[in-house]
Amino acid sequence: MRNIFFGIFIVFLVAAPCLADGPVSKSYSGIFDPGELTPIDSELKVAVGEAAPDFTLEAISGKTVRLSSFKGKSNVVLSFIPAAWTPVCSGQWPGYNIAKDEFTENNAVLLGISVDNVATLFAWTLEMGGLWFEVLSDFWPHGAVAETYGLLRSDGTAERALVFIDKEGIISAIHVEDINVRPPLEFVLSELKKLPR
Amino acid sequence: MKTKSLPALFALLIFCLLWHGKSTAFAANETMPDVSLQIPENEEYRKYLGINGAPGDEFRLADIDTDILLIELFSMYCPYCQAEAPLINEFYELATAREQEDGTRIKVIGLGASNTKFEVEFFKDKYEVRFPMFPDEDLSLYKTFKGEGTPGFIGVLYKDSGNPLIILRQSGGFEGAEEFLALLLQRAGYQ
Fold first, then answer.
1. A18 in catalytic set
2. Would the ipTM clear 0.90, i.e. be above it?
3. Interface residues on B facing A, Cβ-Cβ cutoff 8 A
4. Quick check: is B49 in a domain?
5. For B18, which residue in chain A has the nearest alpha carbon?
6. pLDDT at residue number A87
7. Which of A82, A177, A189, B26 fits a disulfide with A157 by CB distance 3.0 to 4.6 angstroms?
8. CATH no. for residue B121?
9. Would you identify the CATH topology of the domain A41-194?
10. B143 class by beta-carbon count within 10 Å (0-12 exposed, 13-18 middle, 19+ buried)
């Protein structure tokens, strides 16, 4: 009897986070709160004016995305976020969902990057209601792209950072935000406007 | 853990799942906190709220000229708030029409939790929101109103005696504008 109840308890313990803020709920709370974190915990390895290090990552769409494939065609904005299912991250990319026109007008492709695996990112972005931009998994080798850019934190998560890259593949702006804070939309749109069309 | 405590824990888990998975509306009867906001630059908004004074100065929420006030706690970044925006707009239209029908004045304002002024304006423009929205960048208003996620709603009844009363708290969105308006009116004692 004890084992049966223990088994039921474990099943519900596992199921609770999945169901608690599922599609039925229309309130965006119930996200894991890691508390106040060290604002920035890495040192940049790239700088404005340098060529953006190339990378190839798997997207949750099933595509494989290579940064250099946009060279000569589009500006690119890399949005690194620390981790899926955490408070600020869960409320950052959905905001970019309604700024699609602004990215398009400035001939910019937005690429979201997280160190989580594809399955986790798929479930997380689905819970947000979907995103219009590609979300890339920098899971394995763990955080390799974040590390190349100097954005991998000591705990294996990434910084909350934005890297603006022009059509020639040159970094035009880098913004590493306090991990506890969301970069204001006005900053994103202001940097977008500086990129060549 | 003792075996006999497990059924209670099991029941609690089921309760939490069932409770948390739905939008929740609570009847409340408490005095609205004494909150002040900046007087909007937009003249139409000042007229809508019945507020006199210079833009940029502060006005008390209690001084809004209305019978009922619906406060939406939202965030530009919240996908549920984005999805809810057309419904709130519909609610605003219905609420505005109500005054023409029987004179009941129902006003709506939005408070952008953790949003800058720019982000609030961006949201308003994207969803063509016609009622006034105010930034709550440091979440102080959200905390004062005991917000529990976004979107959230606070219904307030303005009485002749002053001291507006909170008559409804809802965490989560609503399914239909007409039904939600009926609920608000019922809580306010108008139906």
1. no
2. no
3. 3, 6-7, 9-10, 13-14, 16-17, 20-23, 75-84, 114, 116, 118-119, 122-123, 126, 148-152, 171-173
4. no
5. A20
6. 73
7. A82
8. 3.40.30.10
9. Glutaredoxin (3.40.30)
10. exposed
